[in-house]
Amino acid sequence: MAKIVAVLYPDPVDGYPPKYARDSIPVIDSYPDGQTAPKPEAVDFTPGELLGCVSGELGLRAFLESQGHILVVTSDKDGPDSAFERELPDADVVISQPFWPAYLTAERIAKAPQLKLAITAGIGSDHVDLNAAIKHGVTVAEATWSNSISVAEHTVMQVLALVRNYLPSHEWVTTKKGWNIADSVSRAYDLEGLTAGVIAAGRIGQAVLRRLKPFQVTLAYTDKHRLAPDIEEELGLQFYPDIPALARNVDVLCVHAPLVPETYQLFNEELIGTMRRGSYIVNTARGAIMDTGAVVRAIDSGQLAGYAGDVWYPQPPPADHPWRTMPHNGMTAHVAGSTLSAQARYAAGAREILEAWLAGKPIRDEYLIVDGGKLAGTGARSYTASGNGSSPGSTGL
Ligand code: NDP
């Protein structure tokens, strides 16, 4: 019998939805690199339901309880008196989501002697101290690819929203009940003909480049490793050797690099000051890649024409976080990767991981971040440990 603690975001303020905007979602069988979508033995939910919140329970309760396991679901995750901390000491498995991260710090892992598996329902396990997981023999797994395209779509949406001044134009006809054409268009441009750059052409970054191409923009990117020449040629990509070189040569900059010490607070006043006046930044990677105050000052001075994204630091941000109220922002909460479409995939991924682990079978290599006391699978390719890892505990981020 295992005890599984799932930390999920709170239900909608009006309660769990009795019905949905659409009757079904498309079935996605595989991802752009050929990896197959999650294939658990069964699921106990209807794809398209709200699964990521407390009442959604990632659709796991019937499956786990039918096998005699205990499932505890809570959204109360922060501080020593939280339900999460109370449930941790005898937990075998913790499930969390980057949107509402249950930070598994070294201190918390030390308080959970039975903990053997930490599942990220989604992508991005930087809320887990990977060094501590390695040291305590905790396996860390995530549903690789499950929401990468969801994030890429959100990024493109926010690029268009900023460049075309969509949100203020919408507000003029709705909240303000106006018909203010000049007010709306005095900051609106076409994306066509601009130069759009992507920092890190991994799964999300490359999907963004592919989705921006039909807009007839000039495309540029930087990454630690250059893409294959045929991909550069197919997408017409200009490669820059580092982030500063890319930043000063584009009009629109999309950030898709992980949060690691070298990207922490990278976008400070100095770097933003080298960008073209009136540039736009869309950051759906991690909030702490930006110096919060530098972004606000650049918006106020006009150095940046707009800033958007769905990641903040800290998260959730306080009510008076300046990005909530600064002009020309298109911010959302951390929602890009939690569409109903994505939830169906990462809930199925969490179930697939649990089915394998409970049966003593290997977890798919592409889902593994840490296993057997070391970085493994996708983790060995995308994460670092030993003091320069991407986890909050190891970096102090
Ligand atoms: P991938 O691992 O597929 O790609 C990351 C890319 O970043 C790799 O190509 C890597 O290069 C490159 N890279 C790493 N460090 C640097 C650096 N210092 N400078 C430039 N490039 C660098 O990740 P994903 O595309 O799946 O995700 C990207 C980020 O998006 C995640 O780290 C996460 O923070 C965020 N994310 C946000 C979500 C959301 O809901 N908003 C959801 C999922 C992820 P190489 O491999 O060649 O070393």
Automatic annotation (TrEMBL):
One of its GO terms (biological process) is formate catabolic process. It is an enzyme of class 1 (oxidoreductase). Its EC number is 1.17.1.9. Its main location: cytoplasm. Substrate binds at residues 123, 147. It holds the Pfam family 2-Hacid_dh_C. PROSITE patterns: D_2_HYDROXYACID_DH_3. The record marks 286, 334 as: Important for catalytic activity. It is found in: Cytoplasm. Residues 156-336 form the D-isomer specific 2-hydroxyacid dehydrogenase NAD-binding domain. NAD(+) binds at residues 148, 203-204, 223, 284, 310, 382. Keywords: Cytoplasm, NAD, Oxidoreductase. GO terms for cellular component: cytoplasm. Catalyzes the NAD(+)-dependent oxidation of formate to carbon dioxide. Formate oxidation is the final step in the methanol oxidation pathway in methylotrophic microorganisms. Has a role in the detoxification of exogenous formate in non-methylotrophic organisms. NCBIfam families: PRK07574.1. HAMAP family: Formate_dehydrogenase. Belongs to the D-isomer specific 2-hydroxyacid dehydrogenase family. FDH subfamily. This is Formate dehydrogenase. It comes from Segniliparus rotundus (strain ATCC BAA-972 / CDC 1076 / CIP 108378 / DSM 44985 / JCM 13578).
